[in-house]
Amino acid sequence: xxxxxxxxxxxxLIPQQVTLIAVSKTKPITSVLEAxxxxxxxxxxxxxxxxVDKHIELPKDINWHFIGHLQTNKVKYIAPFVYxxxxxxxxxxxxxxxxxxxxxxxxxNCLLQLYIAKEETKFGLDFEEASALLxxxxxxxxxxxxxxxxxxxxxxxxxxxxxxxxxxxxLQFKNRYPQFPILxxxxxxxYGIAIKQGSTHIRVGSLIFGERNYNNK
Length: 217
Ligand SMILES: *Cc1c(COP(=O)(O)O)cnc(C)c1O
Description:
single chain
């Protein structure tokens, strides 16, 4: 199936209120354009340089979501245009985003990344760290960021019960913050489970664009 067919099929499968973020990392401009022409406006990228290059080349009404691990020294490159930063996991990073947003006269939407997987490799805050951050004085001073909610990744496993339980925990935590509308959970392999657990934004790459080949990078 083509990229545009994949987009239309996915959109027909998910509830209307769930936002589909097409994860285009490692994929060429032509593939992003094909998705865009099928009506897709939200795209996700993991690498700063690739995001900057794509932003320059592609239509300016795209909402660019940064979903990777963001280093503080690279915030300045995406601050002028990024629509939302999903992977925020420290007050240090938030403070830097705030500083660069202020320089650009903007308020940048951010999601706190929560650590829910039973794996050592994933980034993120545990629930206690996230609530401590949200009540800290350092956080309350930041006027150029807007926390919209939370992002999380489930364990990389075939065990659907485990994935469901991890998403359930994150939904329960999110429900303690009714002021935050967004829950960014669910990827190609688990978006269906995520939507049942209250996902508002799914981040889908390979189901739309095909498998990624990292050797090209
Ligand atoms: C790559 C990536 C995705 C998309 O993964 P697929 O399995 O290709 O859908 C979603 N979220 C994050 C954070 C990613 O890095």
